[in-house]
Amino acid sequence: VQIDALGMDDARFSVEGPALPYTMAAGDILALKIAFDQTFDEARTTLSISTNTGCAQFSVKAMNVNPEEGSVITSSPFVLSFGRVKSGSESEPIEFTLITEPRQAAGAKAKASIGAIASSNASFRVETTSTSPVSSAAAAMGGAAECMRTSTLVKFVAPNAPGLVQGQLTWEVETDRGSVRGVADVVGLVEP
């Protein structure tokens, strides 16, 4: 597939990627950097990717977070790529991590708790999840409550039919200001 153009339908967003045109082989991942004008609280847009085989569109949502209060949530990686896996077998696990850093305003106690991490496709199995406190510079200086790290091991259980298998890991964090939900894409290529 040849990527010919990238675009956002809202001027508050920008997208950066490889030099175009860019050719991708089967199973390749396209890494893009999307930036958001943080003078706005929240915005939604559509990312359009034009290729030699058609056009694909993806929804993008961004929220402006005040670093002095609320919670900062970090997830990694954004895409879990299991590569090529023989049909009927399992991949090695990949670790998916969420870190919450509740920040507190003067006199307030911020909090954040990580809820369930789930897979939208049964071929991507959430194996084990563990949560533990982590230290941060802000917490050591009294600027934040305790940070929490949740690590989840995910395996790809390849079905018998060859081809590309895709899904999403979904997660939710409860904060003082409400629920924050996120996704990470998961992908694997089944070989005969």
Describe the structure.
The chain is mainly β and 192 residues long. The chain has one helix and 14 strands; from the N terminus they run βββββββββββαβββ. A four-stranded antiparallel sheet has the order 3-1-5-6, with no helix packed on it. It has a four-stranded antiparallel sheet with strand order 7-9-12-11, with no helix packed on it. A hairpin with a 2-residue loop joins β13 (163-175) and β14. The longest helix is centred in the last third of the chain and has 4 residues, at 137-140. Mean pLDDT is 80; it is low at 136-144.
Quick overview:
By secondary structure, this protein is mostly beta strands. The longest helix has 4 residues, at 137-140.
Summarize the helices and strands and which ones pair or pack.
Blueprint: E1 2-8, E2 13-16, E3 22-23, E4 33-36, E5 42-51, E6 54-63, E7 70-76, E8 79-86, E9 94-103, E10 112-119, E11 124-134, H1 137-140, E12 147-156, E13 163-175, E14 178-191
Parallel strand pairs: 8-14
Antiparallel strand pairs: 1-3, 1-5, 2-4, 5-6, 7-9, 9-12, 10-13, 11-12, 13-14
List its salient traits.
four-stranded antiparallel β-sheet; 2% helix; 192 residues
> Strand order across the biggest sheet?
3-1-5-6
Order of helices and strands: EEEEEEEEEEEHEEE
Rg (CA only): 19 Å
Percent of residues in helices comes to: under 10%
Main beta sheet, described? 4 strands, antiparallel
* Strand tally: 14
Low-confidence stretches: 136-144
Mean pLDDT: 80
Total of DSSP H or I helical runs spanning 4+ residues? 1
Name the beta content range: over 45%
From the helix content, strand content and strand pairing, which structural class follows?
A: mainly beta
Overall 3D geometry? flat
Distance between the termini: 22 Å
